[in-house]
Amino acid sequence: MFALNNYLIFWLDWPSMITFLGDLGILPGAAPKQPLDGTATILGALQTLSYLLCILGAAIYTKRTPEKPLRHDSQTMVGIAAYIIRASFWAVIFVGLADMVISFLRVEDLLPAIFGDDLATALGRSQFRGAYVHIPLVLAGCVTAAFTRSLGFTWLALLVVAAELSIVLSRFIFSYEQAFQGDLVRFWYGALFLFASAYTLYEDGHVRVDVLYAGLTSRMKGLVNIWGSLLLGMSLCVTVLAIGMWGKTSIINSPLLSFEVSQSGFGMYVKYLMAGFLGIFAISMMIQFASYILESLADYREEPGKREIAEASAH
């Protein structure tokens, strides 16, 4: 809901919950310079209500489904995080391939011959390419993710290797190298690193410096995982979202709002999306940590159905 309201505030100019509460006098320090008009007041009230509905909805769901085990709700959250990651994976594949082709045609001055002068000029502007090429492909990735169940990290890793290999071959065999080739490697590698984090947490594949944990009982391991997820994991996600999305000049919002690109000239126009990777990382990890807390609480309560982690995954 925070991410959704971030879009409403900075892209659609909604007032925000804090501004609404400041206008009411509840948060005097956040009061706007000019009182909100009728429409803005309604929009601010809707934003405030959206947060309250999230809390109330979770409480009502918990109250009405006492028979559902914690592990069931944990798996539901795993499924939500997995969909976000799958959608992001397909989006970076589609956007990466399409932008690479456009960048190649542009650097070789082939765009006017194929698309005409006007469209070729428009494709040279990040705002146009982002709005009319990237965003539709991101939506296509979300649709594709609804019909697939594979996260595809192996394939993304293979594509990173293939992209890097193409640079080596073109540089040393054909003496040809362009900025977009390196941009594609960084784009896909950044996605692989950040998107795989939640899945790796689920499989307990992150490196764990273990001094005491291995010797603890199942109940104590559950307790350690609960407090570790709350104090270390979720706090990091909150920090990334708060610092990255608090204002227009924040490190995530600013590149997204301006469709920021690198200074390499004829490189790929995906730098702003890489800033968005941080938001995807924080949201997917936040959901995964919530799932981890419920699963660890079930372990602490010694509920049946404990999930066994494959030895190959754990470190």
TrEMBL record:
Kindly give the InterPro entries that the UniProt entry links to this protein.
DctQ (IPR055348)
Q: Using the record for this protein, list the coiled-coil segments as residue ranges, or answer none.
A: none
Q: What is its main location?
A: membrane
Q: Give the way it sits in the membrane.
A: Multi-pass membrane protein
Q: Where is the Tripartite ATP-independent periplasmic transporters DctQ component domain?
A: 168-294
Keywords of this entry: Cell inner membrane, Cell membrane, Membrane, Transmembrane, Transmembrane helix, Transport
The record's subcellular location field reads:
Cell inner membrane; Cell membrane
Task: List the GO cellular component terms.
Answer: plasma membrane
One MF term in GO for this entry? transmembrane transporter activity
Q: Which residues cross the membrane?
A: 7-27, 39-62, 83-105, 131-148, 155-174, 186-202, 223-246, 266-294
One Pfam family cited in the UniProt record for this chain: DctQ
Concerning its family, UniProt says: Belongs to the TRAP transporter small permease family.
Please explain the role this protein plays, according to its UniProt record. Answer: Part of the tripartite ATP-independent periplasmic (TRAP) transport system.
- Subunit description: The complex comprises the extracytoplasmic solute receptor protein and the two transmembrane proteins.
Protein's name in the database: TRAP transporter small permease protein
Give the species: Nisaea acidiphila
Instruction: Give the classification, highest ranks.
Output: Bacteria, Pseudomonadati, Pseudomonadota, Alphaproteobacteria, Rhodospirillales
